[in-house]
């Protein structure tokens, strides 16, 4: 794990702990205003009236005798920490499971996304139960709440359905290289709502699933690394073609990770103003397109130099008068 990733992880854990502490402090202030030593008596009384006015009979940390229920607070904190620890254990187990194909990795990522939401919902419902709310009433009210959210968050629901269709139709999986609206990159994760794509520079674009309407999966078939080689008009064309043919046969041995098969010499592509352009094409995996093109350019240049075949380049001629 890199230092940058470690810092992000520590920052994320710190943020969650700070959130839990803030929630506990709010509950303490609402239920036991006297613990807030920095408030004067009138302000403490105002907090108490606010709690009684807006929360009514729901007094989260009050005992039956009216005092502060410390054990209920402990149970709430332990439940939150238990949910967090349980999720981290499940995430660790999933990280150790290495599956052999992109589809399985995609399903694994989606399951982790669902588990994350399930843990949060579980924590909210049973946290309310610890605080004295009626869980059955809360669960029953979720139906009405879902209906209200359905009208106000139609785009969210559309993203969720689009995510499931992407997965089950097999449009792309984690690890595939795709192009969406001109952005080309590797799929890092497919979530319930969004998909993350990282380009060769490490830049990550987060796209809502419903916005992926037109895309190209570049991993479905071999990609082509295309190189145009220019030689001078005065050079021996047949000799250059023979050199290229011999070179293409040796490249899979030199670069087995880049060239699964020998590149192909396609012929004379163009007759330029000062050069004859020859085209060479190699079938490679999409992830290796740029590296294969660089290697092909390098080896062609070295082969032409060794064979004494001139590769033209712009030259400036300066005339000096007497």
In short:
The protein is built from eight helices and eight strands.
Structure description:
This protein has 322 residues and is of the alpha+beta class. It has helices at 3-31, 41-55, 70-96, 102-130, 135-152, 154-169, 237-254, 289-307, and strands at residues 177-180, 183-190, 194-198, 204-208, 215-217, 223-231, 264-271, 276-284. The mean pLDDT is 75.
Task: Summarize the topology.
Elements: H1 3-31, H2 41-55, H3 70-96, H4 102-130, H5 135-152, H6 154-169, E1 177-180, E2 183-190, E3 194-198, E4 204-208, E5 215-217, E6 223-231, H7 237-254, E7 264-271, E8 276-284, H8 289-307
Antiparallel strand pairs: 1-2, 1-5, 2-3, 3-4, 6-8, 7-8
Helix pairs in contact: 3-4, 7-8
Labels describing this entry:
alpha+beta, elongated, 5-stranded antiparallel sheet, single chain, 53% helix, Alpha-Beta Plaits, SH3 type barrels, 322 residues
Helix content percent band: 40-55%
CATH class of the domain at 223-307: Alpha Beta
How would a crystallographer describe the biggest sheet? 5 strands, antiparallel
Shape field:
elongated
**pLDDT below 50 for ≥5 consecutive residues: which ranges?**
none
CA-CA gap between termini: 69 Å
Radius of gyration: 32 Å
The CATH topology label of the domain at 223-307 is Alpha-Beta Plaits
Which percent range describes the beta-strand content? 15-25%
